[in-house]
Amino acid sequence: MTEEQTIFHKIIQGKIKADIIYQDKYLMAIKDINPQSPVHILIIPKTYIPNSNYINKTNKKLFGYMFYIAIKIAKKIKIDKDGYRIILNCNKNAGQEIFYLHIHLLGGKNLGTLLNNK
Ligand code: 5GP
Question: In this structure, are residues 28 and 20 in contact, taking their beta carbons and an 8 Å threshold?
Answer without folding.
Answer: yes
